[in-house]
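Exercise 7. Given the components listed, write out the predicted structure of the assembled complex. Treat all entries as one system.
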Amino acid sequence: MHLEVIGLTKFFGGLAAINDIDIHVDHGEIVGLIGPNGAGKTTLFNLITGFLRPTKGKIAFEGKDITGKKPHLIAKLGIGRTFQLVPLFADFSVLQNVVASFHLRPRSRVWEAFLNTGTYRRKEEYILKRSEEILLLLGLHEVKNVLAKNLPHGYQKMLGMARALAVDPTLLLLDEPIGGMNANEIVFTRAAIEKMRHQGVSILLVEHNMQIMDICDRVVVINFGQKIADGTLSEVRENEKVIRAYFGGEGAA
Amino acid sequence: MIETEISLRASGRLARIVAYTAVLVISLLLPLWIRSPYLIHVFNLTLINIIAASSLRLIAVSGQLSLGHAGFMSIGAYTAGGLAKHLGWAAWITIPVGAVATMIVAILVGYLFVRLRAIYFSMVSLFFGIGVLAVNQVCEKFTGGYAGLIGVPVMFAGSKVQNYYFFIGLTVFSLLALYRIETCRIGVTLKAIAQSHLVASSVGINEAGYRVFAMGVGCFFVGLSGAAYAHYFAVLSHSSFNFLASVNMLVYVLVGGIGSFAGPIVGTTVLIIIPELFRMLKAYVPYLFAAIMIIVIFVMPEGLVGLPGQIISWIKGSRERKDTHAP
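Answer.
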């Protein structure tokens, strides 16, 4: 199993934002995480990537316990992530954003960079080449010299994904990858996610928009911090709890 | 549609090398024209402050604005001065020791305050700057307390010009190191952290580690300038390193242009030499500073360094306007 979350719980004061959740992602799988606003999806992401510490529970990545590790150490293990509200290196160009994100593989020591050694120069050349490849893969190559803050919203989201790929992840966490995108951009993003999967990357994605859920092998639904369904898209669609959570009805909280 | 900044920067590289070399050559030849020991003294003061302001800017590049930089400078100054006066160490040893001591203190302090960002960091650095001076009073035997540390052995006694060349060397060394740090991957990483620490840690950047690194290196160089200061002035008074001194350093950086490496160099030069040119107006110097600061902030967002570019685009703009009015 690639990622395994067991009994994860997070309290904010007296409020359980995440309550005893179990989730797993297998190698090469695309898992969708859906739920109404405030269900705790982004909190779950922040727990997995170390931006928040869980109150209880365990997170294991490739069999190793990573609960409570710092974000940069989790990135080092090969978990890449994007953010919902596209924070990026706003004053860097698109290319610089990706180049700056190549911090781990390859990794240059501070003194190597300072002394401009041969290994450092070779690593930088490799990083530049890889960055261009990633930009080509995600269709950002034509705008590589544009400052990130001047990009249209859809491109900024794609840039977030490009940056996450620079970590050379085996597991990618995408927080609303198509939020606010137009129809063309959605088609393109779907294709990009498929391409990443073919390169052997497992993906856990959060999304409201159902237009992307059919590429998921499995869908997990959470509501009020609790898991209410886990299965294929068609299974989940039939689930009564899910229908109630989304459309209300008798017994809905 | 949008100007490609990277290509513009590449073409500016040669121009920048030429400009820096020209400034260095002129600086080296300056004592041939200027015989006044007083003016050489002003230049020495400028060089010391250029190192201090440039080192402050490195910390700013990582997204932190220090308001206690003069406090760190005093650590270098008193360490070097004290060791030389009380233990008789030579300046060639005390100056590096002063710089390293400052760096060690900065790293320890940096680890304590690393969770604080932006304004909170500025507040704590302000209090640190004041606190250092208080410690200085306590260790009266070593630092001289309120009376000041008097009788630090002077390097190149009696020759301001020799001192001048020594400071040029020290400045070139410091600026080359700082420039290299800023332009290689380390600088890219620091700038990335300054723009978004969330994204930076999501791609595996150890935000805390790099912030402490910037503090350590920035304070190494301000300690270096402080130690050199001690061996130049021979007398250390704690009022030279008070809050106002920290603010002055920040003003040099902001007026010159915090966004560019040349900013603190230009800012320090202009703001130290202008008041000296109008010595008869000495009483009005604080007002002059304030006026320059206000003008720069309102009219020159990129500082004095951005002024030529602004003038060029202004001329181009007015020419274009004329063209559109032509029949």
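Discussion: Chain B has one domain: 36-298. Chain B has 14 helices and two strands.
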